[in-house]
Predict the structure.
Amino acid sequence: MQLVTEACTFNFHLKLACLQSKLYDFDVEILLASKFKGYLPDSFYCRLYRKDLSEYIQYFQNHYHQLIATDGWYESPEFIPSLGMDFTLQCHEGEIENIANGDFAITILINCGSTSEDTANTYFGLRTNLDTLNMRDFCDDLAKLSSLTESDFGDLACKLC
């Protein structure tokens, strides 16, 4: 799966799928445009529930429809997956003509850990634009992943869950 923005591509590499507990583990590779290399880590770990996948789809669809209804002046609340804070995202204003022609700003923050056990986590991230076609492709990939069965995952299927 890929989330392609103007500044970078997030490649979600599935590492493990525990279908009984409805969990998916990913290594997320960040491919920054050459101008921005070095500003973010090259990758991060992410764990999502199947419920998160459908909520991401709903989040993006709601944001898209709100942008149309408000002539582009809408900001969605921050989306935080149910397992916590590996990364968060927030969709902002944009220009939408239709699903094939539009984009909007998106902020993605990545949990980079803390300096010690006594301090809060620190997030680094970016604000860039997301094309509506790339949004749709990502949502389609999330829907496909959510519909797969254990036999579709082969060696990635968790036997202990």
Notes: The CA atoms of residues 23 and 94 lie 32 Å apart. The beta strands are 2-4, 8-18, 23-32, 43-49, 87-98, 101-111, 123-131. The mean pLDDT is 90. The first strand starts at residue 2 and ends at 4.
